Amino acid sequence: MTRGGVFLIRGGRRLEGRIAPGGAKNAILPIMAASVLTDETVSIENVPRLLDVEVFSEIVRELGGKVVRENGRVTIQGGTLRETTVPFELAQKIRASVLLMGPILARFGRVEVPVPGGCDIGDRPIDQHLKAFESMGAKVERVHGQWVLSCRKLKGARVDFDVRTVTGTENVLMAAVLAEGTTVITNAAMEPEVVDLARCLKEMGAAIEGEGTPVITVEGVNSLKGVSHTVLPDRIEAATLLLAGVITGGSVFVEGVRPELMEAVLDKVDQAGAVVTVNDGGVGAAATGRLKSVNVSTSPFPGFPTDVQAQFMACMCIADSVSTIEENIFENRFRHVAELRRLGADITVSGRVAVVRGVERLQGAPVTATDLRASAGLVLAGLVAEGETEVREIVHLDRGYESLEEKLNALGAEIMRVEGEKIENPA
Ligand code: EPZ
User: Fold this and answer.
1) 186 shares a domain with 70
2) Digit-coded pLDDT (tens) for 52-84
3) Which residues are within 8 A (CB) of 185 and not within 5 positions of it... i.e. 6 or more apart?
């Protein structure tokens, strides 16, 4: 595992052609967690090589599960799980380890996870998850920096989320499928990855209704069986690839994604003046000259995804006027702004709003990635900046994109990856 790898990007080339994204990281992780709900084998198809999947696999192995990864498939046997304490070092590396709470609690009646530290984009509380588990009968204690939850048998309950939370909804879903009685979740997240998890749980024998709507009902069952599940394409990677064409004045068609899962992004790409193509094979966008400045405000699905905010901001840096980008989901998700300014962008931030004044051109320079989606935004900016842009700490990108440079180079980009020094377990 390398930390500090660098992308050297020569800007100014138009990206053209067709490309397919990999399977959705944010569906794979909850489904890996769900695999501990059964003794039988769960195999997940369409899994790209992602650092987050490697770390999550490591955690499941540490707990006693068996995880095998081979050419695009991850096979998990949760039946050999013995441990119910998620290891601190690994949990700190991936926020999504919180997704193991529901399944381990449901299966073993006890789970211990580190109190989540902060992360690059916000302090990421899990109060909603804990409140939900308490309402299902769990005892929740905070002991020496660990959340310790215990409950002989979870009971179905009404869970009214105060905020729309993706992993909160997923955690409760996975706890409810083996609970006694009925659970009703209101203000549930409607992200396609939540729906994919629910689909997988139903294939395992769970009784779930209403996924993809604000109210989900779960009837607890006694046990779940193994399954082979193919995860949906990654709509965030698809948006990133589409915007790579848009920002460079080119034309990219992203294959295999369902257009209805990308409507909010496609609408903004259309408003920015690109010609959008939608058919049952996927989605495309072709630039038609200088981009128009467009205002964006992130919100839960089906709104504009926060995970595409940095990438869209990169496009607006060279648009024809002024755009405002409002980040409503996380409180600190503008860390790419300072780096974009190093490339010549004109952006001012006040609270949750970034005002982007389009400039004629960006100029290549060394920049540093801070978190997964910020690094994607910097790569897109580097594609259009004059001269060479060096994006450092590319390990952030490898958490959620498999060989992004190969995909972009296949569309005409000129990106060289320079491996960083090898560090065993980068923080
Ligand atoms: C998921 O994170 C995704 N991660 C994130 O993707 C994504 O950005 C986010 O949803 C929003 O769509 C995975 O699915 C693994 P939330 P999650 O709980 O579930 C607040 C990426 O780049 N909140 O929906 O952690 C929270 O602080 C990652 O792939 C509470 O206040 O996000 C935030 O402001 C980054 N209390 C808002 O809700 C809680 O108990 C939405 O968070 C839970 C959340």
Assistant:
1) yes
2) 999 999 999 999 999 999 989 999 999 899 889
3) 132, 159, 161, 169, 172, 173, 176, 215, 216, 217, 218
Give the ligand 1 atom nearest the CA of 25: 29
Distance from the CA of 372 to the center of ligand 1, in angstroms? 14
Asked whether 307 lines ligand 1 (CB < 6 A), one says: yes
Separation between Cα atoms, residue 316 and residue 311, nearest integer Å: 9
217, 297: one domain: no
- Asked whether residue 163 falls in the same domain as residue 225, the answer is yes
Is the distance from the beta carbon of residue 167 to the nearest atom of ligand 1 less than 6 Å?
A: yes
CB atoms within 10 A of CB 367: 28
* DSSP bridge pairs for 347: 356
Tell me if the pTM is above 0.90.
Answer: yes
pLDDT in tens, 153-165: 999 999 999 999 9
Strand partners, 227: 42
Q: Hey, which bits of 78-129 come out as E strands? A: 110-114
Instruction: Please tell me the distance from the alpha carbon of residue 364 to that of residue 366, in angstroms, as a whole number.
Output: 7
CA of 291 to the centre of ligand 1 (A): 30
Q: What are phi and psi of 359, to 5 degrees?
A: -115, 160
Q: Quick check: 233 pLDDT over 50? A: yes
Domain boundary among 230, 260, 277: 230
**252 and 190 together in one domain:** no
Query: Domain tally for the chain?
Result: 2
CATH code (residue 351): 3.65.10.10
Q: Is 400 in the pocket of ligand 1 (CB under 6 A)?
A: yes
Query: Is 210 domain-assigned?
Result: yes
Strand order in the sheet with 346-350: 296-297, 322-326, 353-357, 346-350
Among 230, 261, 290, where does a domain finish? Answer: 230
Q: Scanning the structure block, which residue is given the tokens 């024809």? A: 320
- CA atoms of 173 and 216, how far apart (whole Å): 9
